[in-house]
Amino acid sequence: MASAKDCQVANLASFWDIPGMKAGVVTGDLCWKLLGYAKAKGFAIPAFNCTSTSTVVAVLEAGKQLNRPVIVQFSEGGSAFFCGKSLPNKEKQASILGAIAGAQFVRGIAPAYGIPVIVHSDHCAKKLLPWFDGMLEYDEYFYS
Fold first, then answer.
1. What is the pLDDT of residues 119-130, one digit of tens each?
2. Is residue 17 annotated as a catalytic residue, yes or no?
3. Which of 6, 17, 29, 122 is flagged as catalytic?
4. pTM over 0.85
5. Cα distance between residue 71 and residue 48, in whole Å
6. Can you spell out the DSSP letters for the chain?
7. CA proximity to 43, closest of 61, 68, 11
């Protein structure tokens, strides 16, 4: 069943017609409206696990070529790889740092690619909660 948000965007000709839509990272209500638009129009926004600046750039370049939104996703292991596998990770500190660095990288360059981008964390098993908690703590700092 379609929600009220889905119905609000279902009649739009393009995701660019969503009020406030912009190139770069989209969050909050704008992100929900973009996802609602995709649902209403029957298409998926692909998510790609990224492990380096090169993989992030490849995803953004593909989105730009197709003029389609993308989801850049970071997993716990991929995040550790993003900042360098030689850093200690016993308490998930490298994974936290890599996810933060990856998200900041995406926030910094995504507008230049001219497409909406969602940054997402991959699934999180209970044993990985310290990684997720570290990201949430940084998010609180970043958005305050």
1. 999 888 888 899
2. no
3. 122
4. yes
5. 6
6. ---HHHHHHHT-SSGGGSTT--SEE--HHHHHHHHHHHHHHT----EEE--SHHHHHHHHHHHHHHT--EEEEE-HHHHHHHH-TTS--TTSHHHHHHHHHHHHHHHHHGGGGTSEEEEEEPP--GGGHHHHHHHHHHHHHHH-
7. 68
